[in-house]
Amino acid sequence: MIDVASLKDIKTAKNKAENTETETAAPREPKIDNLGRSYATGKRKNASARVWIKKGKGKITVNGRPVETFFARPVLRMVINQPFEATKTSGEFDVICTVKGGGLSGQAGAVRHGISKALDLYNPDNHTVLRREGFLTRDSRVVERKKYGKRKARRSFQFSKR
Predict the structure, then answer these.
(1) How far apart are alpha carbons 48 and 108 in whole angstroms?
(2) Which pLDDT score, from 0 to 100, does residue 66 have?
(3) How far apart, in whole angstroms, are the C-alpha atoms of residue 135 and residue 72?
(4) Cα(65)–Cα(90) distance, rounded to whole angstroms?
(5) pTM of the entire predicted model
(6) At what angle do helices 104-122 and 74-86 cross, to 10 degrees?
(7) Of 121, 122, 38, 114, whose CA–CA distance to 79 is shortest?
(8) Sign of CA dihedral 99, 100, 103, 107
């Protein structure tokens, strides 16, 4: 028969073992290349963006054009700047990105996802903030395919009784 004292000793030994495992997990190292840049790929819908960030004055270039001309709508520029506002690093990083596929909204979401991942790689301390805001999660929603016998993906043709 096992007494209560020995059960408590076993539980405390397990807790100590779990604590040492979590303490030994080394903090992640920043991934920065020899030019001082951090690279990440962001995706949304059918758009994919390749993003490089480096310390600078806050200049954002998309496909060789300034962000104000590429994303003319203020809402899209706000979407792109959300990771910087969440990490309180507005105006500290220059962003150079190339984006392909999809429409403007999907491309802006892809750039935001890429910037978030690059910020996480540049400074791993930003990870919890970016994860909590949902910027590191790839939005996997894409347009549903059209089915045969349907007008759109799910919409049927209008029914006529006569």
Answers:
(1) 10
(2) 96
(3) 22
(4) 20
(5) 0.80
(6) 20
(7) 114
(8) negative
Helix (H, G, I), strand (E, B) or coil at 52: strand
Coil, strand or helix: which one is 159?
coil
Beta bridge partner(s), residue 38: 53
Tens-place pLDDT, residues 91-130 = 999 999 999 999 999 999 999 999 999 999 999 999 999 9
CA 14 – CA 157 distance, rounded (Å) = 64
DSSP state of 28: P
Sheet holding 37-44, edge to edge: 37-44, 47-55, 93-100, 60-62, 65-66
Position 28 scores a pLDDT of 83
Q: Give me 35's structure tokens.
A: 């030019």
Task: State how far the Cα of 159 lies from the Cα of 162, in Å rounded to an integer.
Answer: 9
Q: Which residues contact 14 (CB under 8 A, 6 or more apart)?
A: none
Q: Which residues pair with 5 in a beta bridge?
A: none
The single-letter code of the amino acid at 152 is K
Inter-residue contact 47 to 99 (CB < 8 Å): yes
Residues 6+ apart with CB under 8 A from 150: 156, 157
